[in-house]
Amino acid sequence: MASSPARYSRSVDWVTVGIYFLMVLLGWVSVYAASYTPDAPTNGSLFGNLSFQELMVYDWFKQILWIGTAVVLIVMLLVIDYKAYDTFAFVLYGGMILLLIITPFIARPIGGSRSWLELGPMRLQPAEFAKFVTALAVSRYMASINLRQQNFRDQAVLAGLTLLPPLLILAANETGQALVFAAFLLAYFREGMSPLILVILAAAAIILILALLVPKVWLIGVFTVILGLVFVFNPKVMRHHLPVSLSVWAVVIGMVFGVDFFFNNVLQPHQRKRIEVLINPSADPLGVGWNVTQSKIAIGSGGFTGKGFLQGTQTKFDFVPAQSTDFIFCTIGEEWGWLGTTGVIVLFMALLGRVLYVAERQKSVFGRTYGYCVASILFFHFAINIGMTIGLAPVVGIPLPLFSYGGSSLWSFTILLFILLGIDAYRKQDLERY
Amino acid sequence: MQYLEGRRFVVAAIFLAVALTFGARLFYIQVLDGSYKLAADRNTLQRIVQVPYRGLIYDRKGQLLVQNTPVYDLMVVPREVKQLDTVRFCQLLQLPLEEVRESLKTARAYSRVKASPLVQNLSTPELAAIQDNLIDFPGFSIKARMARSYRTENMAHALGYVGAITPAFLEKEKYAKYLPGDFLGISGLESFYEQQLMGKRGVQYRMVNVRGIEKGSFRDGEYDTLSVAGQDLHTSIDIELQKYGEMLMRNKRGSIVALDPKTGEILAMVSAPGFEPSVLTGKGMGNRYMELLQDTAKPLFNRPLMATYPPGSVFKLVNELVALQMGVVTPQTSFDCNWKLVRCTHRHEHPYNVSIAIKNSCNPYFYQVMRTAVLRGRSTNRFEDARLGYSEWRRQVMTFGLGEKLGVDISQEKKGLIPTSDFYDKAYGFHRWNFRTIYSLSIGQGEMGITGLQMANVMATIANRGYYYTPHFVKGIGNGGPLPQFRERHVTVVDPKYFETIIPGMQQVVDGRGGTGSNASLLDVGISVAGKTGTVQNRHGADHATFAAFAPAEDPKIAIVVFIENAGFGGSSAAPLASLMIEKYLRGDIAPWRKRWENWLQGPAEQFIRKR
């Protein structure tokens, strides 16, 4: 800690901080619009004469408190020496695993899952914090191995580190939060993981969706014709890769048939509904389909410039569910229109781009891997959350980073991001020191 | 390490691809596809139609006949019903348990959070019985609405009734503005003047939240419209006269039509047997309607407008007027009472002139009047001569408003029948009929069909010496006058001077010695009545009695036709009944010594037939 605060402050990436605060501020405005009730007794001013207790009813008021505490967190995170993360990464990971194991036993059931811990008036979700803890641990481990050497033992450990938290989270019935861990694949890809894995997974996902959308006979026919065409136009493939080609074909056919089994026997009924609804929103118009339909109506009715601040009827009159948390994007879409939604997307692109830039300028594998983890996790949330509000992704309960109401998610993304900024700031200091 | 650096672009490309996909998708659903805007409006906008106060109906003296009174529907919000004591609830409503359960189930199926009617059409006393106890039953409430109620027991046929709109109506373009469950006039004046009575509906747009709870008006009521109350109808009916007429027609079949000849206003119109207007309103209306429909006496049949009969001797007047106008006879023309041509009503003095012929209702006289009017030598072929002559005669007869609908302000009116030449061609063959075939028309018998209203209108025309206004019930709508078509004067082809020549004969009918209508004389109360009796041959039973008159003869204020089915000679029943109506209207009440006629008319029908 030899450096002066002034020199330190110069090395913090203020662009990221600026984007962060801009998003948090816009997020709060959206939460205010979403939780605003026209008949609240506030006499036109923000707080009116309401007491603290009365104000605590409103999400927008509680969000002010969460943002305030997040600022305190930021100061603490920037003060901590980056070496601490390096040192305590596995300790934190171990602690988190323990916490995830005991959470279902000590948590009260809320909304079908036992994943919320109550500390006085606060409610925190350990699964949210498992993300940055896991990111630290895998980055730390990544720094100690060489992914390209194809050491099976190392890869197995890495896979284990990555899969253990989501499995525990899945056990607590938080599917959405567990799915987020798939984001780590992008970071591993950057560090040398074979692109084949990404391609195969993407292909599998596409085949799964096609199998649900298109009659099986068609699908099988098309794949068979493709295989035939390959053989006809490229006889070399037939000569040298016949077993591989045939087994790929067989796996595809197997998957097409396996979808039904997976769909009916592996998925839980509510998960099945969410995927059915993605394909056909009118399948369950008053159940899960309601959320998607009303969310699309809210966003679609915003038009080019939106209905104006606090003028959204879909949100004001409670047609959209979970409007200040998972469906916050609806309020933005309805009240600020296409300009607003595009603005939010541009902001996310700016943040993600900046995080990638910061990650790439790290000298250590630890720092860079962690940076990519941050970008991937943010991206995954961004893609799934907005995707579900406009009917491009299944309804998975994960928040829109920095916009959605909620202490756990705001804290978790703040910590995720500012650990990176802390590491980045000390990187520069190290350079100056040596 | 070098080649891995390139992968940052792959990652960035993935990010960008998703962002661009979102941007495009959002552009599509937000900017290009307008359907989401509509869907959002459909979600929140609730259209509330305000049904205005229906117009009232008054009689000619301003007495209220039809008004609106509140009736009550017991509403239920199924979600708010808590631990219902079903047994006590059923006792309170005096309804069987099964019915209440069934209604609750229907309400629940409609909506758990919106109110729907459980019991409809509760009257004020019924409401009073349950209202105080309703507090013990959460989820139940009372909703008031307006329904028709009647301040009179009479005039049901003309008033018509109001009922819920049927699906068949809703499909018609004319009723596009109506919604299921709306009420509208089904018959009578309620139906004819529906547009004026219903007023203008108001529409309010309300915003509701996801649970259907109101959240204020839409854009500060920019698109709301206020309802406008319906216009009142001021009818020309004298409700006292109407009531008296219905009383006199009790236990009879037939009709009375009384007109003010100067304006065409209908003073009274009785159809017997009848019913009370309140029968077709309120709870159980459907059952009572079916009872009326199945009654063999056909009380729903509006006789003065719908029943067409041969007019009998009253038509001799029209016959004479047409012949006078043609110039083929004069008031002084004399014809033999030649029984070989047609049987006469009775033996009487020689008809030296038309007055004597009218007074005695001489059949052979009017036979010969029509023969001279029809057979004019237009063709050497006697069949063609009759055909041409009859066609011209018919054209002139129809100017008295016969054979066509008059256009009264009730839609049930029939047009009657004055047969065409073609009609006889079809019946007998071309050039196979002549005057001998159709002579019955000359004395108002045969193929002719005329409604009571048309006959009364002929009387009004004679009273006016040659013109009439279309008979109508409503002389004022709101603060204005009647519909424009009722202010239009219709003239017959006959010159007014010829009318003057037949009126003395009509006075002789009533006031002359041995006149057929002497029972209708009001000389002792100072009123001169001009009239004509009629007896209509009826193939199915006893003859129908008619009497048509107007009074006072010099300055007519009332023209009246009384038609009593199966009552024989017109002079014995129809004539005294008409005189009572005239006296009631012109004097306000009945002279004590004339009350005997009221008793006489309450007697059995046979007595009228015996007396000749």
Automatic annotation (TrEMBL), chain A:
* Entry's Gene Ontology BP terms: cell division; regulation of cell shape
Main subcellular location of this protein, as a coarse class: membrane
Q: Which GO terms describe its cellular component?
A: cell division site; plasma membrane
**Keywords tagged on the record:** Cell shape, Membrane, Transmembrane, Transmembrane helix
Q: What membrane topology does this protein have? A: Multi-pass membrane protein
Pfam families tied to this protein: FTSW_RODA_SPOVE
Its transmembrane ranges are 12-34, 60-80, 87-107, 167-189, 196-212, 218-234, 246-263, 336-357, 369-396, 402-423
Any coiled-coil regions, as ranges: none
What is the organism field in this record?
Hymenobacter sediminicola
**Single GO MF descriptor:** lipid-linked peptidoglycan transporter activity
Question: Mind telling me what this protein is named?
Answer: Cell wall polymerase
As for subcellular location, the record says: Membrane
UniProtKB/TrEMBL annotation, chain B:
The reply to whether Transmembrane figures as a keyword in the UniProt entry is: yes
Alphabetical keyword list: Carboxypeptidase, Cell inner membrane, Cell membrane, Cell shape, Cell wall biogenesis/degradation, Hydrolase, Membrane, Peptidoglycan synthesis, Protease, Transmembrane, Transmembrane helix
Q: What Gene Ontology molecular-function terms does this entry list?
A: serine-type D-Ala-D-Ala carboxypeptidase activity
Residue ranges occupied by any Penicillin-binding protein transpeptidase domain in the UniProt entry: 254-579
**Domain of life from the UniProt record:** Bacteria
The EC number(s) attached to this protein equal: 3.4.16.4
Which protein are we looking at?
A: Penicillin-binding protein 2
